[in-house]
Amino acid sequence: MQVVVLASQKGGAGKTTLAAHLAIAAEAAGDGPAVLIDTDPQGSLSAWWNTRQAETPALAPSTIAELAGKLEALRANGYALAFIDTPPAITDAIRAVVGVADLVLIPTRPSPHDLRAVGSTVSLAQEAGKPFVFAITQAKPNTKLTVQVVAALSEYGAVAQAIMHDRVDYAASMIDGRTVQEVDGKGRGAAEMAALWGFVKARLQKSTKTRKNAEVA
């Protein structure tokens, strides 16, 4: 089982929305089963899941102390992917969550404030020796600022070419426990998420290959 941890010091960057959407995009692509884990005290991901009619992806409640054991149990039960939502703060608890990641996904809005906040999240991943990537969220179409933020983030690490634009569909779908893929599978939002999952999947495969090569060496 591969573990994706969504982390960002800035609140409102889209961690919860991305966790839910990526889990469903992964299952739609045949890469599941996926499980969601909510470590944010606000419980937004759990609240979304509780309004959901579909039985998948699964939700696995876990405290930070129980997380490692919970992941082993989920792995033994055949889950292929786990997406972990985290609170918007840099704490020892989040360090523990990042420590179990195969990949840290850092959602970042194209704004100066978000860009300035990226450094602490990057440092957290680097301290844990975990690979990380960026995903641009809530972008306005055809804006110079988005291009500038992508260029700035590229100096830290890989940035997904699939950009999550500021669409009403994302917020609307989350109200009733769905995602844009389920509301309109042929819409632009669905295409964005399918492309973003393709990027994340490729980075996970690269991370796994790098880890195996290191073990052999």
What does this structure look like?
The chain has helices at residues 15-28, 44-50, 67-76, 92-98, 112-128, 144-154, 168-175, 180-183, 188-216; strands at residues 2-6, 34-38, 58-59, 81-85, 103-108, 132-136, 158-159. Helix 1 packs across helix 2. Strands 3-2-4-1-5-6-7 form a 7-stranded parallel beta sheet, with helices on both faces. The relative contact order is 0.18. 49% of the residues lie in helices and 14% in strands.
Task: Please describe the structure with a list of short key phrases separated by commas or semicolons.
alpha/beta, 14% strand, 7-stranded parallel sheet, 217 residues, Rossmann fold, 9 helices
What's the arrangement of secondary structure elements?
Elements: E1 2-6, H1 15-28, E2 34-38, H2 44-50, E3 58-59, H3 67-76, E4 81-85, H4 92-98, E5 103-108, H5 112-128, E6 132-136, H6 144-154, E7 158-159, H7 168-175, H8 180-183, H9 188-216
Parallel strand pairs: 1-4, 1-5, 2-3, 2-4, 5-6, 6-7
Helix pairs in contact: 1-2, 1-9
Rg, Å, rounded:
16 Å
CATH topology: Rossmann fold
What is the strand tally?
Answer: 7
- Specify the CATH architecture: 3-Layer(aba) Sandwich
Structural class: alpha/beta
Question: Which strands sit side by side, in order, in the main sheet?
Answer: 3-2-4-1-5-6-7
Report helical residue fraction: 40-55%
Short description:
The chain is an alpha/beta fold. Helix content is 49%, strand content 14%.
